[in-house]
Design brief:
Radius of gyration: 21 Å
Helix content: 25-40%
Largest sheet: 4 strands, mixed
Number of strands: 14
Strand order of the largest sheet: 2-3-1-4
Length: 375
């Protein structure tokens, strides 16, 4: 598997040349100009350039496409320094085995800014975990069975999303699924970038949000790019800050418990994954794998006629015991770090998905977001 890094595609060489200068100036500002290789691209009559992490830096910082230790290897503090987070995002993208392709330098800038916004919003997001409940702040959201939660006219989408996900804004936690929460965090990042770079599309998105919720499969199709696949899987330890991803529960019995089929999270950088239930306590790669593994030990049969439930206290107890036994940690991680199996298959696969997701392009001339007609 070879590095593909970042591709900037242009209509002509004259259009592409200033982007190279802008990219190198950006990297220079971050002290990274010396780690990148620049190569010309030519395909189907189009011009462009490829930017990849140099061989020595790849081996030093992202060996085997492992980006989980990237911030530590670079000496970055991505929690306290947003420029360090920017550095980690760019270097991880430069090391990618699948090309991050953009039709302009500006689209790349917007992508990085959205990833920063996703990470910072994910760190602030906290929910009340009730798999059967669905709540939003009622001053700016209203619910209809056919349309889902819609924006109350006259309210800014950015403010409404913050109120729903960040308890500092309202003083309370709202109950909804981690999957829906990831949609809100992504939509918040997109809306903030549209404020900066495409206000007309933001206005259209806000009008649309007043009449229906774009959610689930439609949300994925409208707002997200998925990279990696079952046929071309991403390396198990390759992540870019701002990626949305799924850890699958590979145990069929516990996966039947509502809310425990798997876990949707964001990669926050520095080897950490979001934790919407205990904000300020993000998961490491190992702790997330261990938690999902021990879901099998927390299943409790319900009363006759009721669905099974999860004893999360027992799961936490089992995880704590395992963490005291390095040999058992190693055994479990060797199982869980395998790539997941296809839907419905529970044999010997792990919890690691083959793909990740990130926001589509947003600039007026090149946006990939097309709002579908209502109905």
């Amino acid at each position: 598997m070879k590095k593909e890094g970042i591709h900037l595609h242009a209509s002509t060489a004259a259009e592409s040349a200033p982007w190279v200068d802008a990219m190198l100036d950006w990297l220079s500002r971050l002290g990274l100009e010396h780690v990148v290789l620049v190569r010309p691209l030519s395909h189907a009559g189009r011009s462009g350039h490829q930017f990849v992490l140099g061989v020595d830096w790849f081996q030093s910082w992202t060996p085997g496409f492992d980006t989980l230790g990237l911030a530590q290897r670079m000496g970055l503090d991505t929690q306290a320094d947003s420029e360090d987070l920017e550095r980690e995002i760019l270097v991880a993208m430069l090391a990618s085995p699948i090309a991050f392709a953009f039709p302009s330098f500006d689209e790349l800038v917007s992508q990085v800014r959205m990833r920063i916004d996703i990470v910072q919003a994910a760190r602030k997001t906290a929910l009340a975990f009730q798999t059967e409940a669905a709540e939003r702040p009622d001053d700016c959201w209203t619910y209809h069975e056919n349309t889902g939660f819609t924006l109350v006219p006259g309210h800014r989408l950015v403010d409404a999303l913050v109120k729903a996900t960040q308890p500092e804004a309202t003083g309370r936690l709202y109950s909804f699924s981690c999957y829906r929460a990831t949609e809100y965090v992504i939509l918040l990042a997109i809306a903030r970038e549209l404020e900066r770079s495409n206000p007309a599309l933001l206005q259209a998105l806000e009008r649309d949000s007043e009449v229906r919720a774009i959610r689930s499969g439609l949300f994925h199709d409208v707002f997200l790019v998925e990279y990696g696949s079952m046929e071309q899987p991403l390396p198990p330890r390759y992540y870019v800050p701002g990626d949305r991803l799924w850890f699958r529960n590979p145990d069929g019995r516990s996966a039947d418990v509502a809310g425990f089929e798997g876990s949707w999270v964001f990669y926050e950088g520095s080897g950490l994954f979001s934790n919407f239930w205990k904000r300020g306590a993000p998961f490491s790669f190992a702790s997330k794998c261990l938690e999902i593994y021990h879901w099998r030990d927390g299943v409790r049969e319900g009363q006759p006629g009721e669905e099974p439930v999860m004893d999360e206290d027992e799961v936490a107890r089992r995880v704590a015991l395992t963490m005291e036994d390095p040999a058992e940690v190693k055994r479990i991680l060797s199982l869980m770090q395998r790539l997941r199996e296809p839907k419905g298959v529970y044999v010997d696969g792990g919890c690691i998905d083959t793909s990740r997701e990130y926001p589509r392009r947003v600039r007026p001339a090149t946006t990939g977001i097309v709002l579908p007609p209502p109905g």
